[in-house]
Amino acid sequence: MKDVEETMGVTEAAQIPQQRGELLLDAAVRYTEERHWDVFPGTWLEADEGKEVCSCGAPECAVPGAHPTRDDWAAQATGSAVQVRRSWQRQPQASVLLPTGRTFDAIDVPETAGFLALARMERWELTLGPVTLTPDRRMLFFVLPGASAKVPDLVRKLGWAPSSIDLKARGEGDWVAAPPTRYGGRGAVQWARKPTPANRWLPDAEELINPLAYACGREAAAARSRDA
Fold first, then answer.
1. Which of 66, 113, 74 shows the shortest CA–CA distance to 218?
2. Rounded to an integer, what is the distance from CA 13 to the centroid of its chain?
3. What's the rounded Cα separation, in Å, for the pair 112 and 133?
4. Which of 11, 46, 53, 197 is the residue whose CA sits 20 to 30 A from 3?
5. In 3D, which of 103, 90, 79 has the Cα closest to residue 170?
6. At a CB cut-off of 8 Å and minimum separation 6, what does 55 contact?
7. CA dist., res. 22 & res. 45, Å (int)
8. How far apart are CA 184 and CA 205, in angstroms?
């Protein structure tokens, strides 16, 4: 795993940033100005008896400090840097969330499968967009919008039932957390592939589905073997 991570630039990202307000604000503004992504503020972390808890107040929050604050979160999402600054001035510790289904969708796979797929993609010299690595050991590959509608059929054509492998696409009505957002005490969302001018143009889901589905299928087979 270490060699693959170094190849993908994760070694550089491994220093988990402190979630200071200025870092969150700066990141949110960069996403709007440099990538033209919509962003919106999510929940944040609060100290409670020596522990970090989610501002939502739920004791068993699945993603503490990294989810929307209200049901109409989609209406909060904006591509205006001015509005972004206003939002984070009101709550500097708010997580940075990105709606999917607008300028990009995201293909969500387990971390181990994601690193295997990344290595294959590099060998095949495939075009890649940004890729995030989350504290709950998931990798999200940014692709052109529309992926959520066609990924199930693409997976079937490759010979897998969509329910048999741990691969899903996040599209309209969903969101992802962006660096440097942290999930409680688990760590920060990091870039496995940072947004750069070179990956401004995103790949279509069809270009990446083969290595991603293969890697997820291989992981599913290994899990079945362990359970047998």
1. 113
2. 14
3. 11
4. 197
5. 103
6. 43, 44, 45, 46, 65, 69
7. 15
8. 31
**For 173-224, how does the pLDDT look when each residue is reduced to its tens digit (9 = 90+)?**
999 999 999 998 889 999 999 999 999 999 999 999 999 999 999 988 887 7
For the entire predicted model, the pTM comes to 0.89
Percent of the chain whose pLDDT exceeds 70: 90
- What tokens does 69 get? 């604050």
SS (H, E, C) 141-159: EEECCCHHHHHHHHHHHCC
Helix (H) / strand (E) element for 46: namely strand 45-48
Task: For residue 211, give the amino acid letter.
Answer: P
Task: Dump pLDDT digits (tens) for 99-118.
Answer: 999 999 999 999 999 999 99
Burial 192-217 (b: 16+ CB within 10 A, else e): bbebeeebeebbebebbbbbbbbbbb
